[in-house]
Write a structure and sequence with these properties.
Blueprint (H helix, E strand, L loop, with lengths): L5 H9 L3 H11 L9 H21 L6 H12 L12 H8 E4 L2 E4 L4 H10 L2 H13 L7 H10 L15 E6 L6 H10 L19 H23 L16 H7 L10 H4 L11 H13 L5 H14 L5 H19 L8 H9 L10 H8 L6 E7 L5 H14 L20 H10 L2 E8 L14 H16 L18 E3 L5 E7 L11 H7 L17 E6 L6 H14 L7 E4 L7 H8 L2 E4 H17 L5 H16 L5 H4 L6 H14 L5 H9 L5 H7 L7 H6 L3 H4 L5 H14 L6 E6 L2 H4 L8 H5 L7 E6 L1 H20 L3 E4 L1 H7 L10 H4 L25 E3 L11 H14 L4 H22 L4 E3 L1
């Protein structure tokens, strides 16, 4: 979770607090006389009280009350509403922004501070406030200058791209790019219908009534402010203070009862006004034109328009109250779209799954963010079946529009299928070859209270087979966007070549990789039957989420190891996030506190750790030290796991013979047998049961069951455990929960033999909750396993996809300088020398290969170039020289481009 300072929290709270926004809303609809001077002093005091309480409630016991009161008192009693000043905006802009010709951009030396602010406060407000101040300076800017500057501003107000240094995005979810401004454009400007507060959404969740209340208020305020501005017959600087009718509160009371919360932008764009005079009417008309033309910066036009009104010395106090209330309401909604918390469950259910994100997702501005530079390329992730002719056509059109490339003209009126290859056509094709697609299975699955999600293996296999059929389909794809596609005799057009990667995304704590690995292996097993018109091509590469969010460091590392082993990952495959291989287990556990997981997962972790302790026992004395500790803990949990107490099978014939064998050999159960049973999980249980004891015949069955012979050997205890576990998981029987704490060896002895008096009298009387201890030695050995696995995976050619801002927002990291990329691939490789900071066990052989990506730049506000700037600033904070940091990042940038072109296949090939 991103750590922020008090002043940053205070600024964010001032512009997004729901209680203050609600109070201002009620004030506007009250019957108070807004010409009475004392009313503004009273309102300032009320805002001060609410804001002070809000900061302390949001971040309990984190800051001194005196400090909070001092900050809020200064801001709320400094002419709030009665002057044209708003707190923090000018100061933040001076600190974080810089003018670069026509561009307002964040200072590269303040990238981290800017990103922290962007999570609390919409940067468009900051820039809009600055531009509105520019409009009221002397001399007044020319009309054409205003249009040019506002329309030129770049996404996220990042520095302009260097055309000589293209970047490759290797891990970005297409719907995670959609920013809050695009969503609000649809809600406010296009009047998209709102959900009912009690409606059941597509993902089974209920819409949030508080969100609905904020949306209704935002739309009403927005329509109020636009309608109020339409009634103004002169510019704000010419309004007379004595005319009460010009106040917003008076207009609000007198407005027509038939008032509707929507606007006809075509009509507003044609309102009579002086086209050469900068005033409120001109700004309103330009704003309406931007909406009608769906310009990329129409959201910025709104902020400039409202800031211009607020800053006018003749604007009435109630109008300023309405504008601030609108900004606070919109920022409160925005906070519900920006990830700011721990864990993937929170991300999937609260932020990515928010129904606000389903309102409207236009492609074009998404494309602007991904392909900011002329030569930028990207691998884009989405669901397996989002890859359709229509969606790719929409995506391609947005990419072409963003690149200012037009469709080549056909040779004659009906010749759109016969476009020939020339310079214009080559440029057009090059634009469409700047990306490819990575489809993902979803592991996110809802389950009842106290129950674990169940995988539908039959359905997953259907999806895998359907995907192959879909990619081999010859129908469609003949639109003019694709130059006639397969009907064009000048090209060999093969759209399935856009589909280059496979992933399993979502909450990795819900469904494990073992449920998807057999399908992934089969999909890329090669030599599948294809149509006669297809040319030879390479297979898919894997780019799989693993080790991003976990209940225990061992769980995260084991999930990664399962991904590598069960999916047969190879040279060029990638692990998404893989934080469990980078964050120091001791530090993670300290921040986490108690670690809560199911007993069978805890046993899996102990067995897995025991295996690597035996592997490293000849190299590392620490491994020898933890082996007896682990063996004792493993024995303790034998009878805590349902599928080890008594085997359960759906097949009654199996049940009698194998259950008898289980009891007969139970005294032979060893950690090694449990580890071998864990390895068998790479086999598909659904395909095994489907065979009914027969030998695998089809390629699918052979790939899904690589250990079929062992699984059919009922004399092998590991096979019995494998079958019993899968049968048990299909039932609703819940294992006990384990709470793991960090303590010394003395406290760990309480779990040996007779229970301690504390256990007898405390919560351990509940057999469904068991306590266990991780000792410092074991946590230190976990760090050694990280180093060992990093070395082994690097030797396999596996790459780690880092997503710095996403990881800081979701994981237990406080800042970018804590990101494990500095451990995996440090700017100064001397820290990897034997015995140094990142090789204290002597197991590392050098840096591992990494990529830098954005993941979901609309949910964790960033851009790809911003990610590189964040890492540069973080490296400098660690004492790395600026030139060294830049050289390090340049090598990562070039490696990203190499990986894109390694996996890419040309979709258009001249014949």
């Amino acid at each position: 979770m991103l750590h922020r300072q008090l002043s940053e929290h205070a600024a964010g709270c001032f512009y997004s607090d729901e209680q203050v926004a609600k109070h201002l809303w009620q004030f506007l609809h009250s019957s108070q006389d807004d010409t009475f001077n004392d009313i503004w002093q009273l309102l300032q005091n009320e805002c001060y009280q609410l804001l002070t309480s809000s900061v302390d409630t949001r971040y309990p016991r984190e800051f001194r009350l005196n400090d909070i009161r001092a900050l809020m008192g200064q801001q709320c009693h400094a002419g709030l509403f009665v002057s044209s000043h708003l707190p923090w905006l000018d100061e933040l802009a001076d600190t974080l922004l810089i003018r670069n010709g026509d561009y307002l951009q964040f200072r590269e030396s303040k990238t981290q501070a800017y990103v922290r602010l962007a999570a609390e406060l919409d940067p468009s407000l900051l820039v809009g406030w600055q531009l509105a101040d520019w409009l009221q300076q002397n001399p007044i800017p020319q009309i054409h200058d205003i249009r040019r500057v506002i329309n030129a501003q770049l996404p996220f107000f990042a520095p302009p791209a260097n055309s000589a240094k293209p970047f490759a995005e290797g891990h970005v979810h297409v719907w995670g790019v959609t920013t809050e401004s695009l969503i609000f454009n649809e809600i406010l400007f296009q009047s998209k219908p709102l959900k009912n507060g009690n409606a059941v959404l597509a993902n089974g969740q209920l819409s949030d009534a508080q969100t609905d209340e904020l949306l209704v208020r935002a739309r009403t305020l927005f329509a109020d402010l636009i309608s109020f501005a339409k009634t103004a017959n002169c510019s704000p600087d010419k309004q007379l203070k004595s005319e009460q009718a010009n106040s917003f509160s008076h207009w609000l009371k007198e407005r027509d009862a038939s008032f509707r919360t929507s606007n006809d932008w075509e009509l507003i764009a044609k309102l009579p006004h002086n086209i050469n005079e900068l005033n409120l009417q001109w700004l309103l008309v330009e704003f309406a034109k931007a909406i009608c033309q769906r310009q990329a910066n129409c959201w910025l036009w709104l902020h400039v328009f409202l800031s211009f009104i607020y800053q006018s010395s003749s604007t009435f106090e109630s109008t300023r109250v309405a504008i601030l209330c609108f900004w606070q309401t919109m920022n409160a909604l925005r906070r519900r779209l920006i990830m700011d918390g721990q864990g993937l469950s929170r991300f999937v259910e609260t932020y990515n799954g928010s129904y606000l994100r389903k309102v409207g997702q236009p492609y074009q501005d998404n494309i602007r963010r991904i392909f900011a530079g002329k030569g930028d390329v990207a691998e884009i992730k989405s669901g397996l079946f989002s890859f359709t002719e229509k969606s790719i056509e929409n995506f391609s059109q947005a990419l072409l529009s963003s690149s200012n490339v037009t469709i080549p003209k056909a040779p004659y009126i009906f010749g759109e299928h016969e476009v020939v290859l020339n310079e214009g056509t080559r440029r057009y094709i090059d634009s469409l070859e700047r990306w490819h697609y990575c489809g993902h299975f979803s592991r996110s699955q809802l389950a009842g209270i106290g129950k674990r999600p169940k995988a539908d293996l039959k359905e997953n296999w259907k999806k895998a087979a359907k995907l192959l059929r879909k990619l081999n389909s010859q129908s469609g794809w003949s639109e003019s966007t694709f130059l006639g596609g397969k009907l064009n005799p000048s090209f060999h057009f093969q759209p399935n070549r856009w589909f280059r990667g496979l992933d399993v995304a979502g909450d990795e704590n819900a469904l494990k990789i073992e449920y998807f690995a057999p399908m992934l292996r089969w999909l890329r097993s090669g030599l599948h039957s294809k149509s006669a018109t297809e040319t030879a091509c390479k297979d898919f590469h894997f780019s799989i989420h693993a080790g991003e969010d976990y209940a225990h460091p061992l769980s995260g590392m084991r999930h990664i190891d399962e991904t590598v082993r069960f999916c047969d990952m190879r040279e060029g495959d990638r692990l998404g996030h893989a934080l469990a291989l980078g964050i120091e287990p001791a530090k993670w556990a300290q921040r986490q506190g108690e670690m809560v997981l199911y007993a069978d997962e805890h046993l899996d972790n102990l067995v897995w750790m025991w295996h690597y302790a035996t592997v490293l026992s000849t190299q590392l004395p620490l491994a020898q030290q933890v082996i007896p500790l682990l063996e004792r803990r493993i024995v303790r949990f034998y009878n805590k796991v349902s599928w080890l107490k008594q085997p359960k099978f759906h097949d009654e014939v199996e049940s009698q013979s194998e259950a008898h064998l289980f009891d007969a050999q139970k005294d032979k159960l060893t950690p090694d047998i449990l580890y071998r049973a864990w390895l068998l999980r790479r086999n598909c249980y659904f395909q095994l049961k489907k065979l009914h004891g027969n030998k695998p015949m089809s390629a699918m069955e052979v790939i899904a069951l690589p250990d079929w012979a062992r699984l059919c050997d009922d004399e092998k205890y590991a096979s019995i455990i494998y079958k019993s576990r899968h049968s048990s998981l299909l039932s609703d029987e819940a294992d006990a929960m384990v709470i793991v704490r960090v303590a010394n060896e003395w406290e760990a002895q309480n779990n040996i033999g007779l229970p301690s008096s504390r256990s007898q009298l405390g919560r351990n009387q509940n057999k469904k909750i068991i306590e266990d201890i991780d000792t410092p030695a074991e946590l230190e050995f976990m760090a050694a396993i990280q180093d060992y696995l990093l070395t082994q995976y690097d030797s396999l050619g596996i790459i780690i996809e880092t997503n710095p801002t996403s990881n800081v927002y979701i994981a237990r990291l406080n800042s970018h300088k804590e990101h494990p990329i500095f451990r995996w691939n440090p700017p100064d490789e001397s820290v990897l020398m034997n015995g140094n900071m990142f090789n204290r066990f002597g197991l590392r052989k050098g840096p591992v290969k990494v990529l830098v990506n954005t993941d979901d730049p609309g949910i964790m506000p960033t851009t790809l170039r911003t990610e590189y700037m964040l890492l540069r600033e973080a490296a400098v904070e660690q004492g790395i020289g600026s030139t060294v940091a830049e050289r390090w990042l340049e090598s990562i940038r070039q490696f990203g481009l190499e990986q894109f072109h390694r996996n890419h296949l040309p979709v258009f090939e001249p014949i």
